[in-house]
Automatic annotation (TrEMBL), chain A:
This is NUBP iron-sulfur cluster assembly factor 2, cytosolic. GO terms for biological process: iron-sulfur cluster assembly. InterPro entries: Mrp-like_CS, Mrp/NBP35_ATP-bd, P-loop_NTPase, YlxH/NBP35. The lineage of its organism: Eukaryota, Metazoa, Chordata, Craniata, Vertebrata. One of its GO terms (cellular component) is cytosol. Pfam families: ParA.
UniProtKB/TrEMBL annotation, chain B:
Binds 4 [4Fe-4S] clusters per heterotetramer. Contains two stable clusters in the N-termini of NUBP1 and two labile, bridging clusters between subunits of the NUBP1-NUBP2 heterotetramer. Its cofactor is [4Fe-4S] cluster. HAMAP family: Mrp_NBP35, NUBP1. GO terms for biological process: iron-sulfur cluster assembly. The keyword ATP-binding applies. It comes from Sciurus vulgaris (Eurasian red squirrel). Its main location: cytoplasm. CDD domains: Mrp_NBP35. This is Cytosolic Fe-S cluster assembly factor NUBP1.
Length: 211, 308
């Protein structure tokens, strides 16, 4: 999604060098994807092996000076999630961002994620409701393909901040497919304003979360 | 099996019981004796249990959020519409057990007389309960589901899995190894980002000798209810599932368009086929279900019928 496929990870004295995805070198990336010889290769690993790699990603990568380390996780509350929390604990993680779609079935799983955060002492920064409505590009009618409001309701009931809703936007999907920078190319998209507003909320909330 | 150390080399590894991280593990003696490398007796027990189960189908996806559980649930509904067909749906997404909600079940296990469901969701007392288990404990649960549930006479056992290629997938394939799985259906959405993960799933199926029944492309286009024009919300920038299936010589079972009624039905725990019987999505589902049935029960060639 960040147009970094096929890049290789190198070693330096302080560990693995993460891959920079932009010219300005403001975003670096580490993923098991860089360690596969063939992108179609399945990573058929059980929990302990996955946990060991995650620990290495935190301790053996030469991240350098970072303002934010963002960790994308798979769905669930299992090995990867426990390994990440344990590996990051000494570094006092800012918190967890919950992403849900609006329907009850999705919210049902995120409720369990919130419990995971509570049990592992991970602060919840807020909830984002993704795929929240679709504006037809032909007639502008808005359809709630995956229902609506579930994310906001969840945040309210759980007493955590609701950071915003991101609508469905085919241009966002297309940009990710082609590794283009959606933020640069589609400033007029409703998804753009939602995403930048959420980013701003996180930036504003950081000092309070740190203390 | 109790909790294992974080750097557990694996019970079937050559280092089992002998590695530095094995010190202090309650299973160390067992592993060092080589017992971990011996075949699990549960595999034979499960083979016995599965003698009354005619067809076993796994539903896989590379990515999360592609509609796999929705598909599994509706495959179950579709097959069970024939009251003479006994269907069982097993949900092995231990951390995210959505099947009870999608099937409208609070604790009872039968949707209809001929459609039963098993899920870890039934064992949780609150919708907020999190199942924070590592791999070995999840594997133990899956073993119990397969070995200790009285499945009875079942025509189709459908197994809904979490996304990926990890403990749950390895375990279900291993535990059913002696019992023969008919095959796997892989659910995807049209984008390359999703297809990339489907290729990995197909790769996994080849590695574990699991036949691929075919691929379902979900969320394939959206027809605006007002102007009736179609939009590709998840654009198939690299040819969608159709292109990939042609390349990999794997059947494309069908494409299901986006329909807001699907999500609504799932949230209400009702069959979408009942709510919207003439929707293009329903018709797509029915065609896919028929192809799956044909894969599992191929019709005899005409020559054989004439001579018998």
């Amino acid at each position: 999604m960040l147009r970094a496929q096929g890049k290789a990870v190198h070693q330096c004295d302080s560990g693995w060098v993460p891959v920079f995805v932009d010219q300005e070198q403001s975003i670096s990336l580490m993923s098991v994807g860089f360690l596969l010889e063939n992108p179609d290769e399945a990573v058929v690993w059980r929990g302990p092996k996955k946990s060991a790699l995650i620990k290495q990603f935190v301790s053996d990568v030469a991240w350098g000076e970072l303002d934010y380390l963002v960790v994308d996780t798979p769905p669930g509350t299992s090995d990867e999630h426990m390994a990440t929390v344990e590996a990051l604990r000494p570094y006092r993680p800012l918190g967890a961002l919950m992403v849900t779609t609006p329907q009850a079935v999705s919210v049902g799983d995120v409720r369990r994620e919130l419990t995971f955060c509570r049990k592992t002492g991970l602060q919840v920064m807020g909830v984002v409701e993704n795929m929240s409505g679709f504006a037809c590009p032909h007639c502008a009618a808005c359809t709630n393909i995956f229902s609506r409001g579930g994310g906001e309701e969840l945040a309210r009931r759980a007493g955590v901040p609701f950071l915003g809703s991101v609508p469905l936007d085919p241009e966002l999907s297309r940009s990710l497919e082609e590794g283009r920078d959606f933020i640069q190319e589609f400033p007029k998209s409703p998804a753009f304003s939602a995403l930048t507003s959420i980013a701003r909320e996180i930036l504003n909330a950081t000092p309070a979360l740190l203390s | 099996m109790e909790e294992v150390p974080h750097d557990c080399p694996g019970a079937d590894s050559t280092q089992a019981g002998r590695g530095p991280s094995c010190q202090g593990c309650p299973n160390q003696r067992l592993c060092a004796s080589g017992a971990g490398a011996a075949p699990d007796p549960a595999i034979e027990e499960i083979k016995e249990k599965m003698k009354t189960v005619k067809h076993k189908i796994l539903i896989l996806s590379g990515k999360g959020g592609v509609g796999k559980s929705t598909f599994s649930a509706h495959l179950a509904h579709g097959l069970a519409e024939d009251e003479n067909t006994q269907v069982a749906l097993l949900d092995i997404d231990i951390c995210g057990p959505s099947i009870p909600k999608i099937m409208g079940l609070e604790g009872e296990q039968y949707v209809e007389d001929n459609l039963g469901v098993m899920s870890v969701g039934f064992l949780l007392s609150s919708p907020d309960d999190a199942v924070i288990w590592r791999g070995p404990k999840k594997n133990g649960m899956i073993k119990q589901f397969l070995r200790d549930v009285d499945w009875g006479d079942v025509d189709y056992l459908l197994v809904d899995t979490p996304p990926g290629t990890s403990d749950e997938h390895l375990s279900v394939v291993q535990y059913l190894a002696a019992a023969r799985i008919d095959g796997a259906v892989i659910v995807t959405t049209p984008q390359e980002v999703s297809l990339q993960d489907v290729r990995k799933e197909i790769n996994f199926c080849h590695k574990v000798a699991l036949p691929v029944i075919g691929v379902v492309e979900n969320m394939s286009g959206f027809v605006c209810p007002r102007c009736k024009k179609e939009s590709q919300i998840f654009p198939p920038t690299t040819g969608g599932a159709e292109g990939m299936c042609q390349d990999l010589k794997v059947p494309l079972l069908g494409k299901v368009p986006l329909d807001p009624h699907i999500g609504e039905s799932c949230d209400k725990g009702q069959s979408f086929f009942v709510e919207a019987p003439n929707s293009p999505a329903t018709l797509a589902y029915r065609s896919i279900i028929q192809k799956i049935q044909e894969f599992c029960t191929p019709r005899q060639p005409k020559e054989d019928l004439v001579s018998s």
